[in-house]
Amino acid sequence: MLELCFQYEFPEAGCDEAGRGCLAGPVFAAAVMLPPDFHDPLLNDSKQMTPRNRDRLREVIEREAVAWAVEAVAPARIDEINILNASFEGMSLAAARLEPQPGFLAIDGNRFRTQLTLPYACVVKGDGKYADIAAASVLAKTHRDEYMCRLAEEYPEYGWRKNKGYPTREHRLAIREHGLTPHHRLTFNHEIDQLELPFV
User: Fold this and answer.
1) Who has the most CB within 10 Å: 18, 21, 93, 126?
2) Is residue 199 part of a domain?
3) Do the beta carbons of residue 47 and residue 17 sit within 8 Å?
4) What per-residue confidence (pLDDT) applies to 47?
């Protein structure tokens, strides 16, 4: 069972991102402040949840959270500042939009940089330890998946409805055949390492 938050001295927002390892699409980041009595037995690290449970929890979180916000950082911005900094930027933007403002941020991961003046703590695998970070992981993941499914209607050949822009074999083969879209991250490696199509 997840602890509600990292500390109880200040109102806390949990922050997480989704899509850092993708070849296409924005990185999405979320910040969530939960009420002190929040509990849902399905809530966990979003990667450990089924898509159906993530969608269900998204509705619960968005309805019951004290405050929540989701931000997307575009592929062009990712190429400009790199994916790690884009993740930091997305979480900072999401946290800055919260109303009321938190007094503390709990960040999933081992590093964070921000221009916000809020105190924060980085928590490795925090989305499997604290409910507010897990809630942020659910919102970031579900909002990003929804966005990629919309893009898939425009670019069906890349399999984004299924792979959500991650570097699957199918996705890399589609890039080889059809080239890059405006939604691909140009600084990422799109090649298929040691994968050659067999000659028949």
Assistant:
1) 18
2) no
3) no
4) 87
